Amino acid sequence: MEKKSLVIIGSGPAAWTAGIYAARSELLPVIFEGFIKGGVAGGQLMTTTEIENFPGFPDGIQGPEFIQRCRKQTERFKATIISEDVEEIDLSKKPFEIKGTKTSILADSVIIATGANAKRLDIPGAKDGELWQKGVTSCAICDGAAPIFRDKELFVIGGGDTAMEEAIFLTKFGKKVYIVHRRDELRASKFLADKAKANPKIEILYSRVIIEIKGDNVVKEVVLQDVKTKKEEKREAGGVFFAIGHTPNTGFLKDKLELDKNGYIITKDKSTSTNIEGVFAAGDVQDAIYRQAVTAAGSGCMASLDAERWLVEKGLIG
User: Which residues contact 211 (CB under 8 A, 6 or more apart)?
Assistant: First the structure.
């Protein structure tokens, strides 16, 4: 079985940035970019339309094009890219064994950058091929400033801190922001809940759910239902934002790394090191707070540098 100094798992900004840095350092990394289980390789940005907040793109760039450019840049420095999912990783012995769908490789070090998927509800109109990324999204900070949301009535689904933060952020752009929460009390911290309630542009719709999102090429209307009375009402809408959390893609690890209660990989101090020497984590798979393409890319750079230093310290590379 072939052995490499570094294997990178993932294909979002964190993975490709780690690959670029590692390849330029002549570590000859292997990148498992995924293929089947995660859908299209490239992560969340493959379902994002225009990215306007990544430095260096003053006119914006489409998510899929951005990912393809990152991939091409990695290839330029002679990284090996394998279009397979990683089904299992054996961290109990060194070198580590990474088992892809068809290919298995031994590695002295590993960077896990498999990202996280935003949770979505199964609402008609919100699915891929419907109005997803046409006014339905899961990141107000990423997308809220887009022209299609300006001076429109916007709906945020959720009742926790994330929902409050996103609703407050959206008041900069929307005419009115509605927080739709299925319970009659918010789950958010008192500070954020009070801040949202005090904002004149925010209205909280308690005991309500959105049961349908309507529109043509963009969101135009939502259908709300009172969970107690079952009464339905239609409201004009310019956008719907899911704010109900994310699921980190750590299922393949099968508890082989230390995770927090929500499944995110725990990294040490200000590094990308995990609880197992030689294993590093970057991007949204270990970041439950920022979840931005630029922060993921930055942590991918950190992981590559951390891995290279570790390999040198252990005498595994010259």
Answer: 123, 124, 223, 224, 225, 232
Answer yes or no: 301 catalytic: no
pLDDT the model gives residue 255 = 83
CA 212 to chain centroid? 25
Same structural domain, 18 and 93: yes
Q: What pLDDT, on the 0 to 100 scale, is given for residue 47?
A: 66
d(CA 46, CA 63): 5
Query: Tokens 């990152």 sit at which residue?
Result: 70
pLDDT at residue number 46: 76
Contact 46, 16 (CB under 8 A): no
Rg of the chain's alpha carbons, rounded to an integer?
Answer: 21
Tally of CB atoms within 10 A around 294 = 14
Cα–Cα distance between 258 and 301 in angstroms, integer?
22
Cβ 51 vs Cβ 60: under 8 Å: yes
If asked whether residues 88 and 34 sit together in one domain, one would say yes
DSSP letters along 150-214, please? TTSEEEEE--SHHHHHHHHHHTTT-SEEEEEESSSS--S-HHHHHHHHH-TTEEEEETEEEEEEE
CA nearest to 304, candidates 270, 276, 273, 275? 273
Alpha helices in the chain (DSSP H): 13-24, 63-76, 140-143, 161-170, 190-198, 293-313
Strand order in the sheet with 202-206: 136-137, 239-242, 153-157, 176-181, 202-206
Active site includes 142? yes
The residue from 139, 284, 287, 306 that is catalytic is 139
CATH of residue 196's domain is: 3.50.50.60
Total domain count, the chain: 2
Candidates 85, 108, 143, 287; catalytic one: 143
Q: Is-catalytic flag, 139?
A: yes
* Regions in the chain scoring below 70 on pLDDT: 35-41, 47, 49
CB 300 within 8 A of CB 73: no
